[in-house]
Amino acid sequence: MIIDDFMKYASHYDVLIFDINGVLDNNHDAKVKMLSDAFPDLSKLQVAEINVGMERAYEKSKNSSTASHIASACAGNGIVIDDSKAEELSKKYYELNRIKPEIIKFLNKLSETNKVCLYTSLSREKVDSITSRYPLSSKVVVFAREDQVESKPSIRNLEIILQKLDVPVEKAILFGDNVAVDIMPAHLLGIKTVLVSNYVDDVVKL
What we know:
Strand order of the largest sheet: 3-2-1-4-5-6
Distance between the termini: 16 Å
CATH class of the largest domain: Alpha Beta
Number of helices: 10
CATH architecture of the largest domain: 3-Layer(aba) Sandwich
Order of helices and strands: HEHHHHHHEHEHEHEE
Oligomer: single chain
Largest sheet: 6 strands, mixed
Number of domains: 2
Helix content: 40-55%
Strand content: 5-15%
């Protein structure tokens, strides 16, 4: 998803709700290449399995370093790495999971005319880490793990976001990369949804 794609919706909706993982920090190809370079003897399927394990570990981790989780993801696929290798991969992975400055600049600019919400299961501390390359405007509302009444998927969380921003459901749109976790609850509530995926050539509007 590129900025031009987001802009298509800016004039039609009062609030744009963005999931962070897989939407704003979408560096899937770079992550796969990093793992392929680190483990050249692995098949594409094995690399994909490790990548999924690392994504899950990163989302659950409370700290920026995920070396132990990366080691576990590798071990789950029959690969043993030492602490130095795990730390090396952790640093590279953390860097790839940070949101690019141009995306943050876009969100800041968008927040001058629209209401913008980052809705994520990450902690606020983690959000601060992945947006640290460029300051996030105070107008951008961050609805992080600590702000939520229940874990995703959640219709109630989305209701709270709309109440907090004072926006009717028909004037909201949500961008997510997971049908079950992001798209389904919003769709059931009546929020317009856009699926952002690495596995399709374009966005899917639902």
